[in-house]
Amino acid sequence: MTGRIRHFFAGGNTAQGFYSFYDQIIGVEATRIFIIKGGPGVGKSSFMKALGEELAKRGYDLEYHHCSSDPNSLDGMVIPAIKIAFLDGTAPHIVDPKYPGCVDEILHLGDYWDERKMVVEKVKVVGLTQDIGRQFARAYRYLAAALHIYHDWEAVNQQAFIPGIANQKAETLKQELFGQCSAAAVPGRQRHLFASAITPAGPINYLDSIFGKAARMVILTGEPGTGKSTLLGKLLAAAVTCGLSAEVLHCALDPGKIEHLWLPELKTGITTSVWPHTYAGPVKPALLVDMDETLDPVVQRSREWIEKDRREFLALFNAGVEALGEAKCLHDKIEESYVPHMDFAAIDALRQRVLERVLSYANQLGPSSF
Hints:
Number of strands: 16
Low-confidence stretches: none
Shape: flat
Oligomer: single chain
Helix content: 40-55%
Strand order of the largest sheet: 1-5-6-7-4-8
Structural class: alpha/beta
Order of helices and strands: EEEEHEEEEHHHEEEHEHEEEEHH
Strand content: 15-25%
Radius of gyration: 22 Å
Largest sheet: 6 strands, mixed
C-alpha cells in the first residue's frame, strides 16, 4: 500500500518579507532530523523527493513542505510515524543543529562538488545572488503595499459590520463542533504552517491535500472585513481549551491571520474559501457559513471604493508575483553554475545509506511505526 502524502508550505513570501514556520515542521519529539546543506542546484530537493518515493512505496505516510519560491522544490520532508524529518538548512530558512548528535545531524552536499571548478564561477554567483536579493526586496515592497490596500478594502466593509451577528455565528459553530466540551487538564497542541503561498507562478494552495481525510468540512465565505479570521481564532481557542490538537494554517499575504484549521481528532477541516484559495476538494458533508451576513444591508458602502481597492490590490499583488518570477529566473541561472560540477552518483550513494538508516530506525520502533 502506497503511503499518503500531505503538502504544506513552512515558509512564505509575505507582506512582512519571508516568514518562516520552520520550527513547526517537527517538534522536540523528533527521532532524527537531517539538515541538508549546500548551494543552489546541488540536489537537496531531489534528495528528499527520491527518499520520499522509496518510503511511500513502503507504505509510509509523508509530509512534503514545499518551497514558496519554487513549489516544485521541497524545503522539508517529514515521516510522521517514525518522527524523522529532512530540512533544507540554507537561506532564507537557515537551520543549524539544536541537539547535535542526539537528534540533529548535517548532510553537507557541498562535499560533493568540485571546488576548483566552483571558484571559477565566483563572480557570476556573487552577482546573481545580489540581484536575487534586490528582486525579493521589490516583491516584498509590492506585497506590503497590496496589504495596505487590502486593509482599506476591509475598512470600507467594516462600516457595515455587525459584531453581534459574527459572535452568534461563532457560538453556533462552537456548539456544532465541540458541544458541551469542558476544559481539558492539558490544552491541545497547536502547529502553525501555511496551506498556500505566493509563488513566482502566482498563488498556490494545497487545501485538497491537507483536508483529504476530512469527514466533515466547515466552509467560510465572505468579503474582506467580515470577521472570518476572528471567527477562526475563536474556534481555535475553543478547540485548544477542549484539549484538541489543531493545525493552524495562516494567510500567505498576512501571516498574522488564520485562514484554515484542521482538527485531526474530529476529522474536521475549517477553511476560508475565497480567492485565491477557493476550496475545491472532494464532496463531503459541509456546513456553509456566509460571513457576508454580518454586513448590515441598510448601511451604504461605497462600491466605487471597493472596486478601486480591488483593482489596486490585484495590480500590486501581481507586481509582487512578477518580481518573484524575476528572482526565480536568476536563481535558475545560479543553479546552472553548480549542476555541472556536482558528483550526483556519490550523492545517490549517500541517499541509499541514509535510506537504510531511516529504515533501521523504523525497525527499532516496530510495526506500529506504519
